[in-house]
Amino acid sequence: MRLLASLLTIAVMGLGSPSSRLLAAETLRDTTFAPNPGNLVMFKYVPDGLPQGAPLVVALHGCTQKALDSDDESGWTGLAERFRFALLFPEQQEVNNRDRCFNFFMAEHNRRGQGEAGSIMAMVEAMQIEHNIDPQRIFITGLSAGGAMTAVMLAAYPDVFKGGAILAGLPYGCASTGENPFLMVQRSWFLLWYNPIGEAVWAAYRCGINRTSFPPLTPADRRPEEWRDLVAEAGGPAARASWPRVSVWQGSNDSTVHPSNLGELVEQWTAAHGIDQVPDAQGPASGRYRHREYKDARGETKVASFEIPGMGHAVPVDPGSASAPCGKTGKHFADVGVCAASHIAHSWGLDSQP
């Protein structure tokens, strides 16, 4: 998966499950939702006999991908069957973005009620009505372009989503300000990777969507309060109530999305929650990842980060787990002995429902 040789190259992947072929339900296209200002396509996975008031997880794919590339492959369908919740898979179309990237960097698509953000929200509302989803248990996750769009939805709809997980993603508003690349010192990069769709190039430049080629890029480095102001503006009055809990996942050797975006995302969401950037807890039992938690005055974890040492632009999977095999090793699927999907589901309480 590439990130924009000329556009953005952001990959989506997920966690597969050996039992995914045995699932009773299937991922189906739904054409009943409206409005659709972003011209997206809706897919959903609803386990047979889904109970009333079940949770909903929205899973966003990355560039070059489709919804069906990330349903059972991501591991979410297996978890949905096991723990009885519904899944929503919005899908980008080539007519909107030739690499099927969600247009998280465009103002007409990353504001409440507008463009692609508005379409995703319309899908959520359709799921609530048709499947009697619990409005207090709606969550969202995504990788790369999907991770960046996850940040958009958390910023634009903090009153809807109770939690989000951003995998190899980007802070909300990372492409919103700064010098035009024509005026930057690194003109060689812009000329090398120039594409007529300038907004995508600008997003790559400002957000640290990196390439192994020279010269390397680094993302915008803003103060926590600057990041906070961007999401506060997006959320509007809804942001004054409460912000969703956020977890951030990142490989330390990612050559697509610059690893320092993990720190910028932590700064953005800790500042939004009104807490500092000093971790209150860190370090798991195993050394397979670096884990940090940021808590509020009541001791509740509001932001968590997971850095996978040595991992590139990939989803952490654990297909060899004796108790709960997770995913399949392959391109952008890294067997690092950690199952991201299981961690995320657990943090949202999906594995301990009443």
Q: How many structural domains does the protein architecture include?
A: 1
**Structural class label:** alpha/beta
Radius of gyration: 19 Å
- At CATH level 2, the architecture is 3-Layer(aba) Sandwich
Q: Look at the structure and give the mean pLDDT.
A: 83
Shape: globular
SSE topology string:
EEEHEHEHEHHHEHEEEEEH
Helix content: 10-25%
Total count of helical runs of at least 4 residues: 8
Spans with pLDDT under 50 lasting ≥5 residues? 1-21, 179-197
- Largest beta-sheet details: 10 strands, mixed
Walk me through the topology.
Blueprint: E1 28-30, E2 41-45, E3 56-60, H1 76-83, E4 86-91, H2 115-131, E5 138-143, H3 145-156, E6 163-167, H4 187-193, H5 198-207, H6 224-235, E7 245-251, H7 261-273, E8 281-282, E9 290-295, E10 301-308, E11 315-317, E12 333-335, H8 340-347
Parallel strand pairs: 3-4, 3-5, 5-6, 6-7, 7-10, 11-12
Antiparallel strand pairs: 1-2, 2-4, 8-9, 9-10
Helix pairs in contact: 3-6, 6-7
Could you explain how this protein is built, in words?
The protein contains eight helices and twelve strands. The protein is α/β, with parallel strands linked by helices and 354 residues long. Helix 3 packs across helix 6 (224-235) and helix 6 (224-235) packs across helix 7. The N and C termini lie far apart (39 Å). Mean pLDDT is 83; it is low at 1-21 and 179-197.
What attributes characterize this protein structure?
disordered N terminus, 354 residues, Rossmann fold, alpha/beta, single chain
